[in-house]
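Chain A, query sequence.
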Amino acid sequence: MPSVLPGEHISAQHVNLKLGPGLQQLSSVKEQSFIISTRAGELQSSANRSKWWIESNSRRVVCASSPGVGHWRCCGRSGEGWRVDIGAAHVASLDGLAFEGATKRNRPNLKVGSLLYARVSLAHKDMEPELECFDAQTRKAEGFGELKGGFMVECSLRMCRLLLDGGFYLLPLIGARFPLQVAVGLNGRVWINAEEAKHIIAVSRCIEAVDPDGGGMDEAGVKKFLNTLDV
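Chain A, predicted structure.
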């Protein structure tokens, strides 16, 4: 895929076209829409070319252009809900009823510093982002909600997308050695949990070593690295 600069026109077409980070659809005077890039990087698309985005080593999530699943940290109460740090320029709001089965009398008791696995339900450049902790289609938790225990590690947004790729080697390689739980956000944050503290440390160090914005270690290097950690 070619490299692009901000402001370039992108010829992305599909019946179910979905634009990801770095791309924006604009309307012209003649009511015709066109797509431009909003950041520098490498133009990427899915196998069926229905999803397009700009791959870069950015460390800040831009919710207005990339709503999706994320890993957030609660930073304070706000009326009937909470203010949540999402790693963007502004904090987001999370309503107290935005959980599976939540009512006014039965809602989660989140504290400042609580970690959440939530998704962006509303992202607009002129509005505060809004979060919810359930699947939009089933209205079930489906893994969303408060993350208890474990450890959070920060990495580049590109590393998060690699971890979410089913064909990427890192998590299957580590999972073959010991059981672990991982929640990957699209905002440069990864939550890790395992039975032993040394396993959590090993996973976090591997993510930092493999991150393209850091060490960029390959699969052979990770295997040697794991052998030195006694896990």
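DSSP finds four helices and 16 strands in the chain. The CA atoms of residues 180 and 195 lie 7 Å apart.
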